[in-house]
Every structure is written in C-alpha cells, then in structure tokens.
Design a protein that fits this description.
Length: 117
Amino acid sequence: MKMTRGFLTGLTVIGLLTTSATLRSTADKDGKALFNENKCSNCHSIASVGIKGLRPEGGAKPNDLSNTGGKFKAPWIEKWLMKEETLNNKKHMRKFKGTPEELHTLATWLETLKEKK
Ligand code: HEC
C-alpha cells in the first residue's frame, strides 16, 4: 500500500515534469522559427535574416519585412496578425493560428527587425 502510493506520487511528478517541459519547448521557439512554421514566408521575405519568400511576386503587395521594427511596434503587429488592425484600410490576409504566447514571441521578434540607414 505504501509502495503503491509512492509509485503513484512518482507518476504524478513525472507527469508534471513532462507537461512543463512541453510548455517550455513551445515558449523557447524563437520568432524566426515561428515565422517559418506559420508559413509567413509563403508571402514574405526577410532579406536581412536570409529568409526568401516562396513567391515574392505573389499577393497584392508582397512585402519584405526587413524593416518591420522601423515601422511598427510589437503590440500593433500582434493586432495586425489577428486581423484586429488595418493598414491602408485593409486587414492582413491571414489570421495567426498559433497560441497567444507564440504571437507575442513572433511580434516581439519582428519589432527587432530594422534596416540600418
Ligand atoms: C497569403 C499571403 C500572406 C501570408 C501567408 C502572410 N502575409 Fe503578411 N502580408 C501580406 C500582404 C499582401 C501584406 C500587405 C498588406 C498591405 O500593405 O496592404 C502583408 C503585410 C504584412 C505586414 C506589414 C508589412 C508592412 O511593412 O507594411 C506584416 C508585419 C506581416 N504581413 C507579417 C506577416 C506574418 C508575421 C505572417 C505569418 C504569421 C504573414 N505576414 C503571413 C500577405 C501575407
């Protein structure tokens, strides 16, 4: 009986550790990885970090995002990616599908992209 309880407690501890490890690995993904994973590069390039869009000629106004931080702040980018903000009276073509945490990481990373003048 005593052993069983110890065993169960052990299992619970392992379960908790596994869960936090999984959460941590999601949080550890950097902005660049999220950018590629969310297929942003289908439409956008970021020449300054070596990301080449799959179809740079596609879309109404394909953008290289190398200077995103020179134009926008992270909170705006988050809203833009959730289609809660407009640019030239238009919303973004794609709504972000990841978690709020991933959105934050991605937007924060995009804000760091500034073209040197
Ligand atoms: C289906 C094509 C497509 C995909 C996929 C896409 N975008 Fe866009 N995005 C656009 C278009 C088109 C614009 C230009 C809108 C405009 O200027 O009116 C734009 C504009 C932007 C802008 C503003 C750029 C500027 O300087 O004006 C940012 C930032 C941006 N996208 C980020 C992202 C991110 C991050 C992702 C991935 C989560 C993504 N986009 C996925 C088509 C796309």
